[in-house]
Amino acid sequence: MVALAFAFLVFCFWYFFYPHSVVAQERLFVWDAEFWKEYGFWQYVRDFFVQFFHDASLGALLLALLCFVFQWLAWWLLQCFRKKDWKNILFAVSFLPAIYVWHLTFVSFTSNGEEEKYDWLLRKGQWQSILRKNYPSSAACQNVVRLAQFQTGKIGEAEMFGNLTLTNDVLSSRTSAYMMSDVYMYAGMVNMAQRASFEAMASIEDFSMSGRALQRLTETALITGQYRVAEKYISILEKTVYYRFFARKMKNLIENPTLIESHPTYGKLQKVYGNTKDVLFN
Questions:
Q1: Rounded Cα distance, 168 and 280, in Å
Q2: Cα–Cα distances in Å, from 141 out to 81, 88, 177, 273?
Q3: Residue (of 69, 71, 66, 63) closest to 93 by Cα position
């Protein structure tokens, strides 16, 4: 019961206090032999579990189970050396490896807390929550605040788009690139959103793929009329758990291009893209 209570504590810690850090760790997992050959057995297994970090509750549950397993293994090993009168002490010691694992994941997952928090709120469209936070230091987060002000009617289009950051330094991290891709899509700058998603994908340290980035690249390819490129991304996303339904919807749009014109988001962005010049980073 003590061990289960500890695991429940770990779950609550991640789910209620750091859900933004959990979902930021998601990686793309593809049910495909080529994926296995390219990344190797251990990365394939790791990405199988990390794909579930797409959902904050599942990610928190997996982190709690990881700590529980380490505690159980430590207790099992310590029982080989225990003496009867040391039982309680050794049981307490068995939690040390699990606490260490908890500490390691916390340090590695929360290295960019400000941007992860703003990214989490941006993905959920919680504009008021964004505006209630202290003004951020990150350039990407500042653009998110400006978008939140625009979405809530506090500023107009001229102020929103006139002050939008178009320099390379705004893509200072993977999370900032994700955020800016979303901001640029809201602003109708499709090619900028595409660039930011490429930057996010390229910044993954172990050369894994990102389902979120591939999803955005599929959208931008669809909007810009690059249907064969979109099909390439769709063929990958169709083999995933979380993006399969999205991939099938995009495939239907490619097979029936007239549906894109009537789409509430893609149709509007396609018209904007067709009538404006490409904008590039400085």
A1: 10
A2: 53, 48, 11, 25
A3: 71
131 with 152: CB under 8 angstroms? yes
Contact (CB, 8 A) for 192 and 166: yes
- Geometric angle at alpha carbon 136, from 123 and 204, rounded to 5°: 55
**213: closest CA among 234, 199, 224?**
199
Contact between 138 and 115 (Cβ < 8 Å): yes
The pLDDT assigned to 206 comes to: 78
Cα distances (angstroms) measured from residue 125 to each of 4, 185, 219 = 35, 14, 19
- pLDDT higher at 79 or 254: 254
Can you tell me the distance from the alpha carbon of 233 to that of 214, in angstroms, rounded to the nearest whole number? 6
Mean pLDDT score, 90-94? 84
List Cβ neighbours of 146 (8 Å cut-off, separation of 6 or more).
Answer: 155, 159, 160, 163, 164
Vertex 218: Cα angle to 217 and 220 (nearest 5): 65
Q: What is the pLDDT of residues 225-271, one digit of tens each?
A: 999 999 999 999 999 999 999 999 999 999 988 899 888 889 989 88
Residue 62 in this model has a pLDDT that exceeds 90: yes
Return the half-sphere exposure (C-beta side, CA atoms, 13 A cut-off) of residue 28: 25
User: What distance in Å separates the CA atoms of residue 201 and residue 205, rounded to the nearest whole number?
Assistant: 9
